[in-house]
Amino acid sequence: MEKSQIWLALGTLTLLFVSASADDVVVLTEDSFEKEVGQDKGSLVEFYAPWCGHCKKLAPEYEVLGASFKKAKSVLIGKVDCDEHKSICSKYGVQGYPTIQWFPKGSLEPKKYEGPRTAESLVEFVNSEGGTNVKIATVPSSVVVLTSDNFDEVVLDETKDVLVEFYAPWCGHCKSLAPTYEKVATAFNLEEEVVIANLDADKHKDLAEKYGVSGFPTLKFFPKSNKAGEDYDGGRDLDDFVSFINEKSGTSRDGKGQLTSKAGIIESLDALVKEFVAASNDEKKAVYSKIEQEVEKLKGSTARHGKIYLKVAKSCMEKGAEYTTKETGRLQRMLEKSISAAKADEFTLKKNILSAFA
């Protein structure tokens, strides 16, 4: 098995695991709070604000906490966005962020958590209050960890676009960036030609010096075409990173890692597809041949998308005008079910390309 295939397989497993851990923290709202909290489970609730730096630092620790108690039937790990649900936060006396409170089973009288904001300490607290004996979960990261041993192999690979964060373990800004950077890595986990990586520059000073790193975090982008690297000077929100990578790598992902409506669309085939749609049944074969010739010129992921164009065009000829409508409906129903991220990509690509033939 090639390295790229191994990385993809591991990445897919990591994506599923990390996504699951984030989902293990229950999002509580004004409508759901008292339906979930104070019922038949003890509940630990984080009251946070999206803009709060301390909340961002806590986020990965809290997700590990959620993953740890995933199978504990007697405990709920939840969170409330106080910007969105001010009335709940006011009701429970929240004056600063994050505020973490324990609600015993059957009670809406909370006890404030005053301990360290680490996964280990939070797990210990919940075990003590909830009478559980849960061990802390290990959540794999989607970020590729670089060292002096693998830096050149990963970063200088001319088949990959690589974003690298040079960080120091003691750096506050690096800690604040960590949960966002993890989400970026997760969003692009299924992209074979994109790598999101980091390097402990405190530990690997020689590499930091080689690439002109003088402050932390420093972000550099190493595209396929420029392995000397270029500075990343954009914003540090999830959407900023996602937009940057989509633009530089030709990908079409959103912040959740889902393909956008532009994914798979090949603009150079637009005119031929329009000609194909307008052609009579007898004329379609000739236009199909033209599309086939253009697809043969494509490379990489675009070539794979081109093959989907050909399959759709062939099905249109064989199954008639109603094919695109029926197939689009079928794919939409599949996308609404619980399916793997890889399957969601497959169905979304085809659905997008079908829209060009509508």
From TrEMBL:
<keyword id="KW-0676">Redox-active center</keyword>
<keyword id="KW-0413">Isomerase</keyword>
<dbReference type="InterPro" id="IPR017937">
    <property type="entry name" value="Thioredoxin_CS"/>
</dbReference>
<dbReference type="InterPro" id="IPR036356">
    <property type="entry name" value="ERp29_C_sf"/>
</dbReference>
<dbReference type="InterPro" id="IPR036249">
    <property type="entry name" value="Thioredoxin-like_sf"/>
</dbReference>
<feature type="signal peptide">
    <location>
        <begin position="1"/>
        <end position="22"/>
    </location>
</feature>
<dbReference type="InterPro" id="IPR011679">
    <property type="entry name" value="ERp29_C"/>
</dbReference>
<dbReference type="InterPro" id="IPR051063">
    <property type="entry name" value="PDI"/>
</dbReference>
<dbReference type="Pfam" id="PF00085">
    <property type="entry name" value="Thioredoxin"/>
</dbReference>
<dbReference type="GO" id="GO:0005783">
    <property type="term" value="C:endoplasmic reticulum"/>
</dbReference>
<dbReference type="InterPro" id="IPR005788">
    <property type="entry name" value="PDI_thioredoxin-like_dom"/>
</dbReference>
<dbReference type="GO" id="GO:0003756">
    <property type="term" value="F:protein disulfide isomerase activity"/>
</dbReference>
<dbReference type="GO" id="GO:0006457">
    <property type="term" value="P:protein folding"/>
</dbReference>
<keyword id="KW-0732">Signal</keyword>
<keyword id="KW-1015">Disulfide bond</keyword>
<dbReference type="InterPro" id="IPR013766">
    <property type="entry name" value="Thioredoxin_domain"/>
</dbReference>
<comment type="similarity">
    <text>Belongs to the protein disulfide isomerase family.</text>
</comment>
<feature type="domain" description="Thioredoxin">
    <location>
        <begin position="133"/>
        <end position="250"/>
    </location>
</feature>
<dbReference type="Pfam" id="PF07749">
    <property type="entry name" value="ERp29"/>
</dbReference>
<keyword id="KW-0677">Repeat</keyword>
<protein>
    <recommendedName>
        <fullName>protein disulfide-isomerase</fullName>
        <ecNumber>5.3.4.1</ecNumber>
    </recommendedName>
</protein>
<feature type="domain" description="Thioredoxin">
    <location>
        <begin position="8"/>
        <end position="131"/>
    </location>
</feature>
